[in-house]
Amino acid sequence: MAETQEPKGTKKSGMSRRNFLKNSGLVAGGIVGGGLFGGLIGSQMKKPKEEKKAAKETTNDAEARTFFSRSEDFETLSAAVERLYPEDKIGPGAIGLGVPYFIDRQLASDWGSNAKEYMKGPFPQNQEAAYYENLNTDQNKQGPNSVTQVAAPSPRYQTRMNRGEIFREGIKVLQESAQSNHKKKFFELEGEQMDEILTKMQEGKVRMNGIHSTVFFSLLLKTTIEGAYSDPVYGGNRDMAGWKMVEYPGPRMGYLGQIEDDEFAVMKQESLRDYQEMWG
Amino acid sequence: MAKKLEKVDVVVVGSGWAGGIVSAEAAKAGHKVVTLERGKPVDRQDYVGVKDELRFSDRYEMMQNLAPETITSRNTLDEEALPVRTRSEMMAGTDLGGGSVHWAGATYRWRPIDFEIRSKTIERYGEKKIPEGMIIRDWGITYDEMEPYYDKWEKTAGISGEPDPLGDKRSSDYPNPPIKESPAVRLFKDTTKKMGYHPYQVASANLSQSYKNPDGETIAQCMFCSFCTEYGCDFGAKSDPLVTVIPTAVKTGNCEIRTHSLVRRVLHENGKATGVMYVDLRTGLEYIQPADVVVLGAFSFTNNRLLMLSKIGEQYDPKTRKGVIGRNFNGQFGITFLGARGFFEDKKFNLFMGAGALGGTMSDFAGDNFDHTDLDFINGGGIELRQYGHGPIARNSVPKGTKNWGPDFKEKSIHYTNRSLVAWYTPAVMSWWHNYTSLDPTYTDEFGDPLLRITNKYTDHDKAMAKFGIEKCTEIMEKMGADIVDPDEIPEEFDHVYDGGHYAGGVSMGEDPETSAINNYLQLWDMENLFVVGGSAFPQFGGHHPTATIGALSYRASEGVIKYLKEPGLLTQPKKEGAKA
Fold it and tell me: Which of A116, A226, A259 faces B224 most closely, judged by CB atoms?
């Protein structure tokens, strides 16, 4: 299973798990370590040895959850996107690129709440609507923008839920599937087991409330690709490692002197920040 | 209660090529013009330092906010239409300059047959060639009559190009030489030439050199930065209304541009337009702008809807096939622009470089340049290979049969990201009795006004054309040396994704008021001081990209507006259509 990101807050403030429990008054009556309360709190906090492992991952203050309140949801998301875009010999996978944080922030943005989409009712729940939701347009069936679209299906949107709500619902379904099929948490499953659940979602074979599971899967895949390759300002593409893998240089003034060249131009990656600094 | 403003000569709705050109020409002729734009004011400075793929290509920064208003869509008359809710399904530009700012810049003149498709098809193949239900017609204007307007627009926009070897008569060359050629474009041109075709460089509104247009506006040289289609140009090197007709209109001192101004109604009395009612979207206050002439130069959807909301002209009813407003809806989207994608093992292209209109093209299968006797369609289109230059979010194509996620997807998408090219067909689109626009009975905008409803389905004719184009593109891609060639698949039915911006018709041109809404000056038959300008005027779609034709029609309409202000009346007399559509 892929590594997941650890919460940083407790360590940074110098507050250990033990101190937190003590200060919060939760160490009372011997319930920590057993019983209902212990189970609740304990499962949300990392063991000290895991904190150590996390330290080398990142020291970026921008990497904190602002949409997903529950760390378990975030770990489920992280495990799922790493299956879609895994670490391999070419370079980092979705987690290493910061994709889960990218998605978290996108869902907290106006895009996540569908601020610029038409969200007025009625939202029909008839065969017709279900048909549209199920409709895939793959890259070979798209129109004028086929080359500017993520290589993922884009079923027509006909749900009253916004994207943030779809993600919450989808992640809940991933967790429920893991629990009912394997009696485990999603992120504790073997890779193949996770793939099996993801494939069923992609094929629309998992029941979801309000939408077809294909819609959620498409959204998950689309945002994963976006997180791997969008400018690092959005929280993904960490250290421009996504761009390095595809040899994309980032925004530049232009290529007037190179557009006719036969050789492939290998260039150092520059970010939007570098580009804006150049303009002053 | 709406506040009534001082009367002007001309009020123009919209500030893209259509509204912008009419505003500039009327203002240059000394008329007082007010131009109303629903979006915000922008200029080149708004596009400096913002080359950001996610924001512009995936979050549609320059597209209309759909929360207050969208369209609804269905395939057939007996279905209930549903709203097109997200901006990934509905591409329509907004802000000053409209959709003409985010455009790519590919420039084509349409062909003589595009303007006279009905009579020329009958002349060469006989009446039987036109299938039942296809309501194509001649425009009431010929290519030769359009030529001076094309020429004028090309000079305003500083188009950089070389003549189409299979093109039609031109009064002068493009004002600028063609833009540079990339290795991918060269490969396409060399290959198709060897195959006996007639390739040439796509004429481009991304300029090959710095240029001063006849109105005195300077357009800069294109840098091939790739942030072009779906973006504004940070160098002022893509010809758009912001660097041409809008400053031209403003500097006359005769044109006032009001942004954040959403027009909700055309006002009229006794068969004459008296002005428009609009809302300032910041304050919510309503205004009435009276004018002698009203010009609708907004996006085709808006032109259609404003007439319907204002109860002007007779709404088309597909059951009786009577009425003209909403009739002849057509456009290049969905089933058009299909072709083949090639994957190259031993070639690597700089696909992160490019320009909106950088490309090779050929007209061997356009218009009536090839014999249709044994083909089950009429007209045709260009075959193009374009190098827009794309960011990495967009470039993740993998050969068919590859799973679209997981280790194999990652490896192959990275491998092919700089090794995959597309050739596509840009076919003409015919109009049919069952494809039309009307007001939706259920869904409304933020003010409670009905949304525009599109009823659109594919026909066997569309599919035959798509199949033909895919076969030709597949052959070209194979000859180009691609190791894997994936032909596009023909979709069964229109999936309600309005991408590419080429939606047209509904307020279409013609000679007969029984079947057309406007005459060849884009003047409404039913209301002679109302001109409806833009892609909404196309009775059917030509076989190439539409912008030059919209530019040319806008110059034609400007002439009409100025003529009308001098001497009011119908500028063209109606004729009965020879054969009833």
Answer: A259
Q: How far apart are CA A26 and CA B91, in angstroms?
A: 54
Omega of the bond leading into A122 within 30 degrees of 0 (cis): yes
Chain B hits for A120, Cβ within 8 Å: 83, 443-444
CA–CA dist B100, B229 (Å, integer): 10
Kindly tell me the number of DSSP H helices and DSSP E strands found in chain A: 12, 0
Active site residue B502: yes
Chain B positions touching A195 (Cβ under 8 A) are 406
Task: Measure the CA–CA gap between A33 and A47, rounded to whole angstroms.
Answer: 12
Give the H/E segment covering residue B21: helix B17-28
Assign A210 to helix, strand or coil: coil
* Strands of B271-323, DSSP E: 272-280, 286-296
CATH of B3-566, one of 3.30.360.10, 3.30.300.230, 3.30.1330.10, 3.50.50.60: 3.50.50.60
Q: What is the CA radius of gyration of chain B?
A: 23
How does pLDDT run along chain A (280 residues), one tens digit per residue? 344 444 333 333 444 444 544 444 444 444 444 444 444 454 555 554 444 444 445 678 889 999 999 999 999 999 999 999 999 999 999 999 999 999 999 999 999 999 999 999 988 764 444 444 444 444 344 433 333 333 233 337 888 899 999 999 999 999 999 999 999 999 999 999 999 999 999 888 888 877 778 888 989 999 999 999 999 999 999 999 999 999 999 999 999 999 999 999 999 999 999 999 988 7
Closest CA to B557 of B515, B524, B521, B530: B521
Query: Which SS3 state, helix, strand or coil, does residue B451 take?
Result: strand
Give the A window 84-103 contacts with B, CB below 8 Å.
84-86, 88, 90, 93
The two structure tokens encoding residue B478 = 């194979």
A182 CB-contact burial (10 Å; exposed 0-12 / middle 13-18 / buried 19+): middle
Through-space distance between the first and last CA atoms of chain B, rounded to whole angstroms: 45
CA distance B122 to A189: 68
First and final C-alpha spacing in chain A:
45
